[in-house]
Write a structure and sequence with these properties.
With 377 residues, this protein is an alpha/beta fold. The protein contains eleven helices and 19 strands. Strands 3, 5, 6, 10, 11, 18 and 19 form a seven-stranded mixed beta sheet that branches. It has a six-stranded mixed beta sheet with strand order 8-7-2-1-4-9, with no helix packed on it.
Length: 377
């Protein structure tokens, strides 16, 4: 391409400060350096983790930044040493790297990566120490190493999945985070069993994907828990069989679920990012062998639990990106979608432009959507 090796000026939604509207700016995106790839983002979705960083965590050292981590695009150019990717490839940037060489990448027991940890040196900022973005003479942080709220981004090749060239980018961009996170938490982390009873706490996009994963794994009863009853009809589409609104009860939700199931659920998945809900999800599990998985992201508070809840045989687990090794698994998930064995279209409630990003944020704040998809072309 004519832009290869040159600085590209493009449009991006910049978060200059925490808890402030994003600003559409012209930014400069430098060429990729060794082992990096510059990607033209075609479509991106808004995830609650973007809102968490902007509106809840609000760490001042995490700004200014370009948010966004659930996108898809086309390779514009590659840096020295890149051989697996070339101009024109359709790709999905990954917020969890897979170097394929470290102890964790070689283990089937984890989707973590040592080189990914080293790259995100500033954990409180949720960004690598450097980026290829500048605006008004100031370097911008690259949110979780991806920053898909920009027309172009530069990503390490360890954090890019090459996908089917026929895949619709405005749909499969959802596989960059939310859908894989929820679906994989059920299938890979909880290892939901056929005939089991499951409870999914929180029916946002991640929770709906967890419901879909429970169904795919063969669960016979899937209980959706949310304080917004308007989500229940949508959850039926993904496989939920029962629904509970905690506001309808004057007793702990764990007690409600135990009464509904006699002993408690076999598997529970917390998809909210609330420590009190995490505890409720664990306590809802059957004593002796129940498994509860923490999926929702937060780093603001500690969790408290009585030891006997675990001593009695329950298992408490955490899941990042659904346990998927991104470079290997995301192309497979795209294939499953292309084979019409995975729902993605049903998650998209709004189509908007990047210029409407603050409107999209407001919709998510008001819980009036599952996923908004911002398209650049």
């Amino acid at each position: 391409m004519a832009t290869a090796g040159k600085v590209i000026k493009c449009k991006a939604a910049v978060a200059w400060e925490p808890n402030k509207p994003l600003v559409i700016e012209e930014i400069e995106v430098a060429p990729p350096e060794a082992n990096e790839i510059r990607i033209k983002i075609v479509a991106t979705a808004l995830c609650h983790t973007d809102l968490y960083h902007l509106l809840e965590s609000m760490q001042p050292q995490g700004f200014p930044t370009v948010l966004g981590h659930e996108g898809a695009g086309i390779v514009e150019s590659v840096g020295p040493g890149v051989s697996e990717y070339q101009q024109g490839d359709k790709v999905i940037p990954l917020f969890i790297s897979q170097c394929r060489q470290c102890h964790f990448c070689k283990s089937p027991r984890s989707n973590q990566c040592v080189k990914a940890w080293a790259g995100i040196a500033r954990h409180d900022a949720m960004a690598p120490p450097t980026s290829r973005f500048t605006c008004k003479g100031k370097e911008l942080l690259q949110f979780v190493g991806t920053s898909t709220f920009s027309e172009y981004t530069v990503v390490n090749e360890m954090a890019v999945a090459k996908i089917d060239p026929m895949a619709p980018l405005d749909k499969v961009c959802l596989l960059g985070c939310g859908i894989c996170t929820g679906y994989g938490a059920a299938v890979n982390t909880a290892k939901v069993e056929p005939g089991s009873t499951c409870a999914v706490f929180g029916l946002g996009a991640v929770g709906m994907a967890a419901v879909m994963g429970c169904k795919a794994a063969g669960a016979k009863r899937i209980i959706g828990i949310d304080i917004n009853p308007e989500k229940f009809e949508k959850a039926k589409v993904f496989g939920a069989t029962d629904f509970v609104n905690p506001k309808d009860h004057d007793k702990p939700i764990s007690q409600v679920l135990i009464e509904m199931t006699k002993w408690g659920v076999d598997f529970s998945l917390e998809c909210v990012g609330n420590v009190s809900v995490m505890r409720s999800a664990l306590e809802s599990c059957v004593q002796g062998y129940g498994v509860s998985v923490i999926v929702g992201w937060t780093d603001l508070r500690d969790i408290a639990i009585r030891p006997n809840q675990l001593i009695s045989g329950r298992t408490w687990k955490g899941s990042t990106f659904g346990g998927f090794k991104g470079r290997d698994a995301v192309p497979q998930m795209v294939k499953v979608y292309m084979d019409k064995k995975l729902m993605l279209d049903e998650f998209i409630t709004h189509h908007m432009t990047l210029d409407q990003i603050n409107d999209a944020i407001e919709l998510m704040k008001q819980k009036q959507c599952l996923r908004e998809c911002e398209c650049f072309i």
